[in-house]
Amino acid sequence: MVDPRGTMLNVESGADDIRYRIKRDNQIIYVHVLKPDIIPEDKRTCDKDVVRPHSVPAHYLMHHPFVDISALTVIHESKYRTSEVSHNGQTSFLKIARFPDELKWIIQEIQAYHALSGSSLVSKLLAYISESLCADRIIGFLVEKVNGRRAELEDLESCENALDQLHASLVHGDLCKYNIFITDEGPNFIDLEDSVLVGTDAWSDELKQKERQGLASKLADTSGLGRPWEC
């Protein structure tokens, strides 16, 4: 029997509110509890206020296909917003904004992939991810799966060369050993949501130099900082 309340996809609970992302009848519904303390705990998935769905503004999008998120099969989740998925027999990586405040990271990463289009430094952007069968409701993107191993200190020279190339377009912004794959084509960078594009107000040579100088320590780090769930 189908649960009339739908399937809970994501929950973000805080002291001041609770946010839900629910799939029901092949639709994605967002709800927002503004005063969770006045609602009994066992009722919190029933008494809610509907919130306006979020979307990447159209002016950030280019000529890539749209794929409905319901057409994807999740293989496993790497992090809360990142999953390895299957679509039309192809394995890819999916990243989404579950809630409106996460949209800024998706927008930034989409812009980074646009700036690096055709480069072997990053995976190929395959599609924008729409929700509830609406092409104008973009909440994420799909990129090719990276085939390779995580970078280590022994890869410093090749990673330095690749980072210098990357810096012609952007500063990564969240560089760690888990965000660099060593592939047959050389280093491949992932997780670009904190990137800073060349020519923007936040860009500076100092930012670029700081990232370059910190690369060796990032590759030598054994703390596990930035490590996805499966590592």
Structure description:
This protein is of the alpha+beta class and 231 residues long. The protein has three domains: 7-50, no CATH class; 58-144, Phosphorylase Kinase, domain 1; 149-220, Transferase(Phosphotransferase), domain 1 (Orthogonal Bundle), CATH 1.10.510. Helices cover 17% and strands 33% of the residues. It contains four helices and 15 strands. The protein has helices at residues 103-115, 156-166, 205-213, 215-220, and strands spanning 7-13, 18-24, 27-33, 49-50, 66-68, 73-77, 82-87, 90-96, 125-131, 134-144, 149-150, 170-171, 180-183, 186-189, 196-197. A hairpin with a 2-residue loop joins strand 9 (125-131) and strand 10 (134-144). The model is unreliable at 46-50 (pLDDT under 50). InterPro entries: Kinase-like_dom_sf, RIO_dom. It catalyses: L-threonyl-[protein] + ATP = O-phospho-L-threonyl-[protein] + ADP + H(+); L-seryl-[protein] + ATP = O-phospho-L-seryl-[protein] + ADP + H(+). Keywords: ATP-binding, Kinase, Nucleotide-binding, Serine/threonine-protein kinase, Transferase. It holds the Pfam family RIO1. Residues 167-204 form the RIO-type domain.
